Structures are given as structure tokens and as C-alpha cells.
Fold this sequence. Notes:
This protein is α/β, with parallel strands linked by helices. The protein is built from 13 helices and 9 strands.
Amino acid sequence: MIRIDEIYYNTFVTKLQGQNVGLHWFEPFGTTDISNLCNIPALDKAEKRLFFWDQEPIHLDRFKLLFDQYTPVYANKWNGPTTLITSEKDSENVAWACDTYNLKSAYYFFHGWAALDWFRGYHRTFLMPEPSDRRITQTFVMPNRIIAGQRQHRLAMLYHIFKHGMSDNHISCPAVCPAENISVDDAIKDLINTYPDIKEVFNKESFPREFKGETGAPMHSHQLSLFAESAESLLYLVTETVATGQRLHLTEKTFKPICLRMPFMIVGTAGSLEYLRSYGFQTFGHLWDETYDLEINDHARYEKIAQVLKDIDELPRQCKQKLFIQAQAVCEYNYRHFYSGGFESVLWQELTEMLNGL
């Protein structure tokens, strides 16, 4: 297993030392400001450079801001090639970045390694009841923290959930986005053209919606949590970091239900389930309709997810319990694939092949 906070120094720098390759990455984790850019070695001492934009997805405004500052230094210091290394595949944003700034591209699943590191050891605890001991009373658990800016799709998904009368499930949502400092009332204004009745729908709800024992929308990216809520829920509704546009980008969020031995649906970009299956995991198309994953139109995809949830939500409690039991063969397979080395082997092969191909 790779310690994710040491991946650049311990894995990439040591692998590439002696090859006259320069590396860039950001510290602290999640930042994209040029003042947080790490450069090894100094900018004018390498024949080629690897620029790791792997912690965050490529958002064009943030990427342009950074590279418009970086490029003059890059152009004046040396003329070698730069490879942009990301954690997103088949991405129109990565293609734009490479075309605009004359970059090569490479990929590895950074967030897969992050999940393995952050969620290690939870399979040796007693925090989550055994699946056979769980009594399903809710259809889904759906945590939401950042709900504005580039993650506004979470409000769009909540619109469908509230409109379909599913607000009694385990759902969190802050009154004010902790990252953007924008209220729910202001954030939904950007969605009015798509959902003319969104204000009316949201006015029937109260915010913040917080899980028991939580205040202020705490960040749980690096840990498992919500054990009580998850133990009562048939499935985990993962609202991913990216759920718009043409690209494949999953984070540690997708692996939380896997580590909790739960079924899941993913509010992500089109193809997210197939992307996850390419790493050896299984999904739940034998129990409910997963064709939402094929829907290219983002808002139509959210509506399809909501319709599947509604069909399940309307089932009697004993039917939900039965569905949960029927899902356990896949849940157990995914759990073992994550914790018994199968997933790590796939990731390691991918990472080493990427490095050997640079």
C-alpha cells in the first residue's frame, strides 16, 4: 500500500531519480495555487517535466489561472516536454488543457490509492454491524458537504429527491456551502433555468440537514463514518466530486460503501459504473436498473437515478431487507477485492506501466 501523503517523495521521486526528470505537485493536499507548487529539482535542471494535477479534477478556470502563471517561467527556463498527469480518463477538460498548453498526458487512479490508505484497517474494527445483523429502515444514506460551485450537481440531485418525496431518508446538506460560502438559496438560483420549480421544492425543506452528532458540515474524506445511518440504509447514494461533462473521475467517496459492505448508486459522470468495474469491482444491475450510467445528458441522468430510487423507496420494508440480502454476494466480493489486495494489484500495475511509458 502507498502512503498517499508520501506518494510523490517515496514513489515518484525515488522511481525517477537519476533520469533528469523534474516533478511538480501541490502541497497541501487539494490546493492548486502556484504558491503551493512543489518543484523537484529546480525548474531549469530537467530535460522533461511531470506535472501532477492528480489530487483534484481539471476545472478549466482553475487550471488556466495556474498555467497562465506557470507557462512564462516554463517557457523562459527550458524547452523540454511537460506531461500532465491526472486522475481522470477520457476527459474533454484534460484534452483542452493539453491542446492549449502543448502538454502530453498520462493517467493513474490517485484516489484509488487514497482510499486504500485512508480506509485501511476498518475491516479489523467493530464499528459497522455485520450485514446479517442490519435491519433496513431507510432506502439510502446521502451525505453532502460542498454543494455550490463545481459541485452544484448535488443540489440538482437533491431537487429530484425532494420532488419525488424521498426527503425522509438519511440526507445531509449544509445551509451554507463551507467551500464557496454560498447559501443554498443563492446556489439554487443557477439551476432555475433547468428546474423552474426548484425554489418551491427547496422551500419545503429546512437547512442545514445534519446527521446526529454533526454540526457545521465536517469533512470526512479521509475516514469512514455514519455507521449508524449506513447500517439502517439499503444503499449508499454516492454524490461524487465530478458529475458533469465528458470525463471519468471517481474519488474515495465511491469506496466508502464498498468498505461498509453496502450496495451503492453513483451520482457521477456517464460511464462511472463501467469505469469502476474496469478496476475489478462489481455493481448491482441484477437488482435494479443501472442504465442511468449510460445517459450522456447530465440532468437526465440525475432524473433516472431518482426514478430508480423512488421505485425502491416505495417498496415495503421487508422487500428492502430482501434486496439488501440479495446484494450481499456483490458487497462481499467488492469488500474482499478492496481489502485483500486485488484492487491494489490492479492499481500497482497501472501506475508502474504509466511510469514506464513516460
